[in-house]
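ingest -> validate -> predict -> emit
validate: passed (alphabet ok, no gaps, 418 aa)
predict: started
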Amino acid sequence: MDGHGVSRKGMIAAVYWVLLCAAALQGSVADIPRFWKKSVSRVGSSFVLPLSGNVYPLGYYSVSLSIGHPAKAFDLDIDTGSDLTWVQCDAPCTACTKPLDSLYKPNNNLMHCENPLCAAINTSGNQPCKTPSDQCDYEVEYADQGSSFGVLVNDYFSLKLLNGSLVSPRLAFGCGYDQHFPVNTPPPPPTAGVLGLGNGKASIISQLSNLSVIRNVLGHCLSARGGGFLFFGDDLVPSSKIAWVSLSASSSDKHYAAGPAELLYNDKPTGVKGLKVVFDSGSSYTYLNSKAYQAVLNQVRADLKGKPLKDAVEDKSLPICWKGAKPFKSVHEVKNHFKPLQLNFGKGNAQLQLLPEAYLIVTKHGNACLGILNGGEVRLGELNLIGDISMQDKMVVYDNEKKQIGWVTADCDRLPKS
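emit:
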């Protein structure tokens, strides 16, 4: 989502129905084709998928996945801030996404209430199933007040591992037939759904790991020039130079949360400490809590005094924009007027450096805008989100086995070869 809203579908994806338990995943093994069962015990392979999209003007990165038999390609918005993967269902609906050539058609593969998976969905507020044979409905609501309602299904995902092997695990996901999007926001991306990559058991990465297809590790490399790649498994994780921080130990967290972190501006303390930081590819921009946001804004504005930049209040692309003597063509023309930000984790053992190009965009009007937004204005409370803008040109690795997240500067334009 561009502009003032909280990313196009999800940031913190406050999922009201948390899906999946190990028993349900074990139950899906029986649905794997016989020719493939021999290989599911092999752990350590990886696969890489090219990405499309950009931070601005699109506001999202997407991946194409082949689902079903025969396989059909679906473009999905990648989201490490939520667990449930869902695809727009070929069913009557209201306020749905509209990729007419990318609708998923169920084929006697609805998941029923008797499945242990469905029992894991029942929470306060969710209507219990009347009979074991009822279809298993899901509902997921995101922090930006968007939501998806539908039915759980399972189907084959066609994947090519780096070693050349082809695998087709059967995975659970949502067939969404009633999507709602926040009012007064730009239209949703023209994708067929969302690829949930969070660390909960409903996530595709968790399902693949429980089926012993790959290790429970994923990563992405978002190019500032557009595109990049997404990978599953640990074969591409760098052996050196990567900065690692431990994930939050909170069992209620379904997100990739780290911290506490201290905020610095140009290597100097801002006085803001103890930040809980969530890495969320479902958010176009970076969000800081009100105190941290104000500290950054004050530092930036103080630093711009005497420089040839003026407020561009007429540009509504983002809340804070500046214009120069003539329109800017790229961030590189304006970045020298700004200083880097840093987030120091723990005792300074790991630092996330945000150069000006990791928090600025240049709009179609030629103005520079601050891609850090006030999370307090979108009900994030004390949470701080590292969005796509701040993860560009970095390989970001989510290691669920070692409970850590890492990052390293990388060339995201070069897709790793098998």
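Confidence is low (pLDDT under 50) at residues 1-42.
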